Each structure stands twice: as structure tokens, then as C-alpha cells.
């Protein structure tokens, strides 16, 4: 089994954080909207569970389809590249030479490096340098789907438990605050892992969550009367 690099691990972690963020916002919007219209804890609970399942399964399905399509595309490109090496080896070698020249190697060095690498593993080096990915290093659609399913569900549990466990008189406001705190954490974490400024990310994340909850509450409160 290929060992993941630190960069790959950070990307997976960041994707998990973003999935949890989606779960927080989506289910918070649902349960607060329903709570604005109904006081029944059971109704809010069922609505939240339905939103959690629908959102998690939707994200998992979308991730599976997306990664599967990417994998199929990469395999198709590799197949085309394999055929090109059989029918036009010199042309593929010239492509590689030009790539190394563009990276700053001299004409002689670029030709020497490209020739040696092509002798060792022509398809592998063409996949990496021309197509932009490592040969046989395909993403697993099942792993991607399960990761999205899990991360969304973990995020969704927070607003769901908060709003059903607290007394009706305070549950909306406490859920509102708890969600904003959670969104501040996920916004900071995703920005930190992506080497981006953390403050703007936290502010944007909290504003989006706040707007979502306010709109769903208003709709639930006034339409549900």
C-alpha cells in the first residue's frame, strides 16, 4: 500500500473539515427553520435526522460520482498515451524534452534526462509530466464517498443534539451560538490547513452560517404560523 505524503494527509483532513462544515450549516438551517414554526421536539428531531441522512448520502453520492469520473478520465488518458508511445515514440519524447526545457534545463540536458527517463519508464514519466498525475495513483471513489458521509454526519450532529436537548425557551439561541462557534473553528482550521489567512475565512464562514440560520428561522416562523 502506498504511503500518503504529508500534503495528501492535509488535503484529506481539510476535505473532512469542509464536509463537517457543510453538515453544520445544512442541518442547523433545517432544525432552526422547523423550530421557528413548531415547538415539538419530536418534529424537530425527525426533520434534523432526515436532513442529516439526505445531506450525508447526497454528498457521498456526489463524491463517488465525481471521483469515479475523474478516475475513468485518467485511465482513458493513460490508454491514449500508451497508444501514442507505440505509434509515435519520437513525438512523445519531444514533448518531454520541451517540458524540461520550459523548466529551465538546457537543450542537451533536457534531451538527456528525457531519453533516460523514457528508457526506464516511458508511460510512467509521460503520465506524470504530460498528463499531470502519477501512473496507477488513482483516487478511490469508495473512500472519498465514505469520508464525505462521515464528515458531514459528524458536523450535522452538533446542531441536531443542541436543539433537541435544550429547553424550548432557549434552544434556538443556544443552537445559534453553538453553530457560530463551531463554524469559527472549522473556518479557522480549513484556512490554516490551506495556508490561507484565517481571519477572513472565519468571518466569511460565520456570516454564511448566520445568514442561513436567520433566513430559515424567518421562513419557518412566518410561513409556519
Automatic annotation (TrEMBL):
GO terms for cellular component: endomembrane system. One of its GO terms (molecular function) is manganese ion transmembrane transporter activity. It is found in: Endomembrane system. It is a multi-pass membrane protein. It comes from the Bacteria. InterPro entries: Ccc1_fam. GO terms for biological process: intracellular manganese ion homeostasis. PANTHER family: FE(2+)/MN(2+) TRANSPORTER PCL1. This is Membrane protein. It comes from Listeria kieliensis. The lineage of its organism: Bacteria, Bacillati, Bacillota, Bacilli, Bacillales.
